[in-house]
Amino acid sequence: MSRQDPFSYGVWLLRYGSKSRGGMKAALLKKGFSAPEADGTVAKLADLGYLDDRRYAEELIRRRKTNNVRGKGWVLRTLREEGIFLADFDALYSDEEERRIIGALLEKWSRGHEISDKERQRFYGRLQSRGFNRENIFQCFDSCRGEGADGDSDFSEYP
What we know:
The protein is mainly alpha-helical. The chain has 9 helices and no strands. The longest helix is centred in the middle third of the chain and has 16 residues, at 95-110. The radius of gyration is 20 Å and the shape is elongated. Mean pLDDT is 87; it is low at 147-159.
């Protein structure tokens, strides 16, 4: 049996979803390719436009705002693990967006009812484990308690 070409394997991996440069290198190394082979393959894939860390980061942020939602902390940690550091991360995922997502989750989980102290603790743990910012969580809890002028939450804006 002949050994698989690292470039062909890299292209094959991309059929199943985009990867960062760091993620591709890790996958190639895990498959048993040498570090120079992995580096060369990553460089070639990047030169051809198949690997773009910025595009990967924007896609990850977009997915985590809509599907299997995660907070800014989780997204930022994941990007750093991939070796991606964005100077404008806050412009791509703002605190306001995070609060709207938290509010939508609270509406969904509470089914429109007032949140009890026990539920508040449980929801806080769920949100914290998903990487949401502590201050944003508490601001949303305060909004749910009816601190708005009409007592309604303003979370219906979020899709």
